[in-house]
Amino acid sequence: MLVPRAVCVLTVMTGVVLVSAAWGADTALVVDRGLPQANINNVAGAARSNVRWHNDEQGFLGDDFTIGNRGEKWVIDSIRTWTVPGLHELDPDHLGDFFQDVRLYVGTSGAGLTPRGAAALSQGTDETGDANIRVSDATAAGAPLYDDFGKALRVWQIDFTGLHIVVDGGIRYGFGVWGMGRPIPGADSKTYQWFNHASNASLSGARQDGADGAMLLFDASGKAEGSFDGQGNGWDKSSDINVQVFAHRVDGHTAKAELARE
Q1: What is the dihedral of CA 115, 117, 122, 126, to 10 degrees?
Q2: Is 168:73 a contact under the CB 8 Å cutoff?
Q3: Span 189-217, pLDDT tens digits
Q4: Could you tell me if 126 and 154 are in contact, meaning their C-beta atoms sit under 8 angstroms apart?
Q5: CA nearest 184: which of 94, 58, 93, 87?
Q6: What is the Cα–Cα distance from 90 to 100, expressed in whole angstroms?
Q7: Which residues of 36-46 are buried (b: 16+ CB within 10 A; e: fewer)?
Q8: Other C-beta atoms within 10 Å of 28: how many?
Q9: In 95-171, which ranges are E strands?
């Protein structure tokens, strides 16, 4: 029996998405499992749709998505996810106040994931030093705060752009986004834990492409370690990590050219 390593902590979120520049003339939103737009926070009672999850220090939590149909070739241009890092006693002004870096892992679902993007974070700023990795305060753009047992926390949006990842249509691909936590002052050797924003598909009131109620567990190197269902393991319902994927379809010749760029 798989021992879940994720721990649930509730908070606030809606479907507000920060506007970003286009990453390619023909790129399109092909996986839309964005933030929920209904049943937000504890005010929704038992119908609450939004949740956040963290994993222990031995690995990270991920999920998966599918693009297009079998026989097709696609190039992933960008991946967007959200995180809710705050604690009940402290909500950081900047993501870099809690984390040393931010990382993206991608790979065939069921197999191991490999790093596809990473950037260092500095305290007191949201700048990454990498133009292809952008950190934004989603609440500053109008998204509601996340309700964590009465404490309102910011939601942060992470955009990984310029990825050029060639994938096969109709195949599940796993992903994971996380960051190395900074030491918590006065808490011995403990560090801040990364929380991924997730939601229950049927209660979200928004498109939830590919949602199946199962998340994925990986060790620190990206090795697959099974699946995780939040229902009965910290929450009263299943959920999926919120993600948006932008990509464009290519022919076989172009796919080979894109592979050469990776």
Answers
A1: -140
A2: yes
A3: 899 999 999 999 999 999 999 999 999 99
A4: no
A5: 87
A6: 17
A7: bbebbbeeeee
A8: 11
A9: 101-108, 114-120, 133-137, 146-148, 151-153, 156-160, 165-168
Contacts of 16 (CB under 8 A, 6+ apart): 35, 138, 141, 142, 143, 144
pLDDT at 3 over 90: no
d(CA 11, CA 143): 12
Residue with tokens 């079998």: 70
Residue 209: name the closest of 67, 5, 11 by CA: 67
Amino acid found at 69: N
Tell me the CA distances in angstroms from 188 to 24, 97, 105, 183, one per residue in order: 46, 18, 29, 8
Would you say the C-alpha torsion 155, 42, 177, 97 has a positive or negative sign?
positive
pLDDT at residue 254 tops 90? no
Average pLDDT over residues 116-141: 95
Q: Give the pair of three-digit tokens for residue 141.
A: 């753009």
Q: Which residues, 6+ apart, have CB-to-CB distance to 76 below 8 Å?
A: 67, 106, 163, 164, 165, 166, 167, 245, 246, 247
Taking the C-alpha atoms of residue 147 and residue 86, their distance in angstroms, rounded to an integer, is 10
Give CA–CA dist 160/81, Å, rounded. 9
| Listed residue (74, 64, 62, 83) closest to 29, CA to CA | 74
d(CA 259, CA 174): 19
Query: What is the identity of the amino acid at 252?
Result: G
**Phi/psi at 241 (nearest 5 deg)?**
-70, 135
Sign, CA torsion 6/11/13/17 = negative
Query: Per this entry, what is the length of the chain?
Result: 262
d(CA 112, CA 62): 11
